[in-house]
Structures are given as structure tokens and as C-alpha cells.
Amino acid sequence: MSNVFYSPGHQRAAKVNDLFASIARRYDLLNDLQSFGLHRLWKRRVVRLANVKPGDCALDLCCGTGDIALVLARSGAETTGLDFSEKMLEVAKARSQKLKSPTSISQLPTPNFIQGDAQQIPFPENSFDIITVGYGLRNLASWERGLEEMLRVAKPGARLIVLEFGKPANALWRAIYFTHLKCSVPLIGLLFCGNPQAYAYILESLKHYPAQMAVAEKMRGLKLANVRVINLLGGAMAINYGEKPV
Questions:
Q1: Under 8 Å between Cβ of 155 and 126
Q2: How many CB atoms are located within 10 Å of the residue 218 CB?
Q3: Is the domain defined by 3-243 classed in CATH 3.40.50.10990?
Q4: Where exactly are the structural domains of the chain?
Q5: Is 86 helix (H, G, I), strand (E, B) or coil?
Q6: Do residues 130 and 60 make contact, with C-beta atoms less than 8 angstroms apart?
Q7: Could you report the per-residue pLDDT of 147-167, keeping only the tens digit for each?
Q8: If you write DSSP's letter for every residue of 128-195 in order, what string do you get?
Q9: CA-based torsion, 28, 33, 37, 43: positive or negative
């Protein structure tokens, strides 16, 4: 994949949108294959960290097909899922509608899904008690701007949680991990998208994303409280957590 994916401004945004439009229907399957299904457990852990309380308002950025947003809603939060990709939102809305259909066993609370830019969140300051982003921060033209926007729309005391690919600290494990990605990503893209480069954005994005320790440093720079890093799979994945000061 060419570096145009990482060029600033509208050119990059269009590239990202085209990419996710092409894989939207297969996105959940691809994630299951890439993580051996573990991403579902990690997303549930994000929701546990969110510590939903009665009356909480939650925002899930880069919500994709709605995994995290749906669990937040089921946990009792009034939830909004925001994503740049219209095709991904179509899948999320379809999943949500199934839960509200007359044939559904139980009528579970569902999120409101909207199209928008995580770097220009269309909500005023101090709007949400919980703000999450799963596998989306590294895809922004400026992940730092994304964190700043999360803080802007967070209420005092809000929990900000980022689930993202990481970079293992152990050199041997890091080499094994990146070798796995280099081998598996093109194969998955070829088998399920007919194009070995279709899912290669993972590798390219990781070259430009400084991962969990830099995100934690940025959170501290923004004066977030209780900042911590939860490494998963030896740091191959990670959750960054912080709270907006009261």
C-alpha cells in the first residue's frame, strides 16, 4: 500500500474511507481471523473498564460495526456510535435493528449510530461520561488530535479508553509478532478480499503509530488522571485508560 494512505488532509481521509467501504461486510470475520477471536474478549474488557453507571452517556468513536457500542448500550449507557465510514455504519445499524426486531428474544437497548469525524466530534464540551475507541486511533491523520477531541467532549470524571494494536517491549516477541502480521495479513486480504493489499493497512499504520506508551504520555500531557496501560498478549495489543479530572 502506498504512503498516500498517510498523507494529510482529505486525500488520506478518502483513502481510509475507500478501504473500510471495501471490507465492511467482512470486517468482523477478518478481525476474528486476525486475533483468533480474542478481540471480542478485549472489547468486553474495555466496557468493564468503562464502569457504566445508571444515567451514563457513552460515545464510541470509530465504532465500525458496533461491537463496543452495542455492549455499552446493553450495560445501560445511553450510547452513540460514531464512524467516518458509511458502509461500516450500515453494518452496525443492521446489527442493532436485529436486536430491536419483533422476533428478537429480548428488546435490548441499542445505540444511536451517526457518521462523523473523530478529529472533529460533532458534540459540545462536557457531553459524555464514557468515551471509547477500538482499533481506530491509529487510523486518524492525527491520533493526538483524536485524544484532544475525546477530552473536549468528556465530562469531568469521564473515563477515556483506547483499545489498539501495540508494540511489544520484548524484542524477540516483537519480531515474532510482526513476522506473523507480515505473513498473515496479505494472505487474509487475498483470500477474503481478492487483494493481498486490502488489509495491509494494519502493517502500514503500525509503522506510523507510536503505540501504547506514547498514548499514555499524551494522556498525561493532557492532565488526565489515573492514566494506565494494560498490555494484552505481551503488548501486541493494549488498552490505554485515563480519566478527565473532576
A1: yes
A2: 19
A3: no
A4: 3-243
A5: helix
A6: no
A7: 999 999 999 999 999 999 999
A8: EEEEEEES-GGGSS-HHHHHHHHHHHEEEEEEEEEEEE---SSHHHHHHHHHHHHHHHHHHHHHHHS-
A9: negative
